[in-house]
Structures are given as structure tokens and as C-alpha cells.
């Protein structure tokens, strides 16, 4: 073979390799673009689902949100009983969202499977991440969650007790809460075994007329003295010899019972006695 023919052969091989390399690169780019599109479609789907929940247009099966408070000392994490809050004003989901108009516990949608998935897929990895990042943290972790198609998804974290979730969770807690907190501070939470009452709890909020927009203050709250055990005042003040409203979510009625529907009924009945002008639930 002449040197000219050898050179042409080399150039042919080189050209073939270049074309082959370009085809591989183009193929990888196409694969990457398709994969990115798939991921974006998945993200869009989850976003649409969340938007439907926020806008109140999701089906009832998609609206199974729930909350779980927990406590950790950075080494151990203990979940509290589940709860489900209700944010829209007026009965029947007829009004805008608020800071929370009521809550029940335990959440009837939280089956053993749902709770097991939460612990395995969300709570335990959260603690693992705290340890991996070397974060020194002892305190409350609030998990805002959603059940969809039998799976649990995390909506939000809060490093605080939730309102009104705290009202029913603490009502059902048999363990001494301050002892649990002290164990968390002392990094001895592994010594705690939480105890819960075998009952259901309900909290119903009494709000000022106009809330969550502008609302009046100074309305006299009647019936509180005879129902102190069952009512918490959040937006009230003693003034001119009377208990008066001073906020939007003014008070909360809390009740427990073996049956959830009875607990709900009791909570509402208390607000027939403890009330102020224009109060709604």
C-alpha cells in the first residue's frame, strides 16, 4: 500500500470515529433531554396536585393531609399521635383559609401502614440528616404531611408546636410533657416511652366576625367561668371588669371521648355556652 493510500485509509478511520463519537454525543443528549422532561413532568404533576389542594379543587381522596408533632434530642426522635386540622372558616369548607379552625386526633386516615411509611421514609431520614450534618438540635419537629394514593409526602417542616394541633395532642398525652422535654434537653430521650389515652379528641375554634380579614375587638365573652376546663382563651383580655375579645381566633373548645363523633359533638356543644357576639366556628 502506498503512503497516499495509507493516509487516505487513516483519514477514513478518523472520520468514522468522529461520526461515531458525534452520534454517541447526540444520543446522550437526547437521552438526557428525555430524562429531564420526564422529571419535569413528574414535578409538574406533583405541583398540580398541591395546587389543587391549596385551591380546594382536589377530590376528597387527595385532601388527606395530616400532621405529626415529634420531639428529638438529636439522637432519638419520638413521634406524637397524629392529627388532622381544618383551615377554612365556616362549616362545610365555605370560607377562606385561616391559621386553623379546628383539629381532631388521632387522624382517622393515618392507618398503621401510613404511619409506618412516615417513620421509614420521612421521620427516620430526617434524624439521619440531622446527624450527618452535625446539627446540635433538641426540640420539636412538626411534620406537615399528605396522603396520596396510599403514599405519604412531606409538605413542610416547622420547629415548633402547631396550633391548633397542640391542643388535642397534649390532651391525649398521658406522659408528663415537661418530663419528656427535660429528657430531650438532657439527651436522654431514648429512656422515654410515650403513653397515650385510648380516646379521640376534638378542638373547635371560635373566631371573631370578619376573621381572617378585619374584625372587631372588645366583644364580651360570656360563659367562660363555667367552662374553664374545656375552653382555652387565645385572643381575649380582661378589661373593664369583663373578658373581651382581642384577636381573630379568640377561643378553642376541647373535648375527648372514646368515639370521635362524640368528641366533636361535645366540642361544639360547649360553644353554645361560651360565646360572644358574631362568633363563628
Short key terms for the protein model shown above:
single chain, 281 residues, alpha+beta, eight-stranded antiparallel sheet, two-stranded antiparallel ribbon
Descriptive report:
The protein contains 5 helices and 10 strands. With 281 residues, it is α+β, with helices and mostly antiparallel strands. It has an 8-stranded antiparallel beta sheet with strand order 5-4-1-2-3-6-10-7, with helices on both faces. Strands 8-9 form a two-stranded antiparallel sheet.
Number of helices: 5
The class by helix and strand makeup works out as alpha+beta
Query: What is the arithmetic mean of pLDDT?
Result: 85
Gyration radius from CA atoms, angstroms: 28 Å
Low-pLDDT parts are 53-62
- Order of helical and strand elements: HEEEHEEHHEEEEEH
Major beta-sheet overview? 8 strands, antiparallel
Shape: elongated
Strand line-up in the sheet with most strands:
5-4-1-2-3-6-10-7
Measure the end-to-end span: 97 Å
Topology:
Elements: H1 3-54, E1 64-72, E2 77-88, E3 97-105, H2 112-132, E4 139-148, E5 151-158, H3 165-172, H4 177-185, E6 200-207, E7 231-233, E8 236-239, E9 242-245, E10 249-257, H5 260-270
Antiparallel strand pairs: 1-2, 1-4, 2-3, 3-6, 4-5, 6-10, 7-10, 8-9
Amino acid at each position: 500500500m502506498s503512503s497516499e493510500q495509507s493516509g487516505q485509509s487513516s483519514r477514513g478511520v478518523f472520520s468514522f470515529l468522529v461520526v461515531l463519537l458525534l452520534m454517541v454525543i447526540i444520543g446522550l443528549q437526547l437521552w438526557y433531554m428525555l430524562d429531564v422532561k420526564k422529571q419535569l413532568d413528574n414535578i409538574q404533576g406533583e405541583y398540580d396536585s398541591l395546587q389543587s389542594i391549596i385551591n380546594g379543587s382536589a377530590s376528597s381522596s387527595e385532601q388527606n393531609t395530616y400532621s405529626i408533632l415529634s420531639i428529638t434530642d438529636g439522637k432519638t426522635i419520638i413521634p406524637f399521635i397524629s392529627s388532622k386540622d381544618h383551615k377554612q372558616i365556616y362549616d362545610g369548607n365555605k370560607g377562606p383559609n385561616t391559621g386553623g379552625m379546628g383539629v381532631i386526633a388521632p387522624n382517622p386516615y393515618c392507618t398503621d401502614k401510613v404511619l409506618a411509611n412516615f417513620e421509614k421514609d420521612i421521620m427516620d431520614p430526617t434524624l439521619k440528616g440531622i446527624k450527618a450534618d452535625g446539627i446540635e438540635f433538641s426540640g420539636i419537629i412538626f411534620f406537615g404531611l399528605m396522603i396520596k394514593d396510599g403514599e405519604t409526602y412531606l409538605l413542610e417542616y416547622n420547629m415548633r408546636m402547631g396550633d391548633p394541633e397542640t391542643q388535642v395532642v397534649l390532651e391525649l398525652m398521658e406522659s408528663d410533657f415537661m418530663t419528656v422535654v427535660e429528657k430531650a434537653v438532657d439527651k436522654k430521650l431514648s429512656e422515654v416511652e410515650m403513653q397515650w389515652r385510648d380516646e379521640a379528641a376534638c378542638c373547635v375554634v371560635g373566631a371573631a366576625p370578619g376573621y381572617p380579614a378585619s374584625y372587631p375587638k372588645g366583644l364580651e365573652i360570656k360563659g367562660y367561668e363555667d367552662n374553664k376546663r374545656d375552653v382555652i382563651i387565645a385572643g381575649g383580655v380582661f378589661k373593664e371588669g369583663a373578658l373581651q375579645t382581642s384577636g381573630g381566633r379568640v377561643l378553642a373548645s376541647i373535648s375527648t371521648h372514646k368515639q370521635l363523633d362524640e368528641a366533636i359533638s361535645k366540642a361544639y356543644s360547649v360553644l353554645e355556652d361560651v360565646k360572644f357576639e358574631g362568633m363563628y366556628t
